[in-house]
Amino acid sequence: MVNAAARVRPVFETPDEVPALPPVTLATGPGTPLLCLPPTMAPSGPHYFGRFAPVFAGERDVTVLPNPGFAAGEALPATREAVVRFQAEAVRRQAGDRPFVLVGYSSGGWLASAVAALLEQQGSAPVAVVLVDTYTATTSFESRLEEALRQRAATSEAFELMTGAQLTGQGGYLRVFSDWEPEPIDAPTLYVHATFPPGESEALETEDDWRPQWPLPHEDADVPGDHFTIMDDHSESTALAVRAWLADDRGTNSL
Q1: CA-to-CA distance for 222 and 4, rounded, in angstroms?
Q2: Which pTM was predicted?
Q3: Going by C-beta distance under 8 Å and a sequence separation of 6 or more, which residues neighbour residue 24?
């Protein structure tokens, strides 16, 4: 029903057909900025980075670039190319002439990876990309995630953010990303893994291979928490892992 409802919403084919969305800066500092892309799943928005950003206060800007189509009156992207171009333009406006790091959480990592690939083609590449528990679908992960989502929706404050625009927006993004595969990029990439299975409060031995994998070259960082709590209760550990990687000597030490 949600997917069908998404098909009757207004759409845009090119970024110039819709207004730019205001970025939300959650921390400021002189270092290389983090430009963050939130999940394309409801409820999408800057709130996912609310507990992540304070670790970088005084060190670097942490700015969230909202995805179009999740607020009432906003058009959804007609194609994947439309939203990738929309967010690439948002990145260029926000970064200006400065180097920048792209950060994508969950399905926001799909956009971070796709935007990085486009910007590299256009000569405006990020200096690094961070993917926070971004996944390509696996059967065991999907089933665990669906159950965790049901439990979370029944108890979480996030449920209050679930509007019609949010739900149909999710449907629209699932449609345009349904056949997506990530393209290789040159930017150094960090993949941050949650170490708890979805919906669990500790690391557990399981019979199924639930941990999502990223198919392109990257470095790994394991952090406590499940897919949701790594950006909630355990967000400080997640941010510290990102901070340490950016500071390490792997060609990104100037960040």
Answers
A1: 38
A2: 0.91
A3: 46, 63, 64, 66
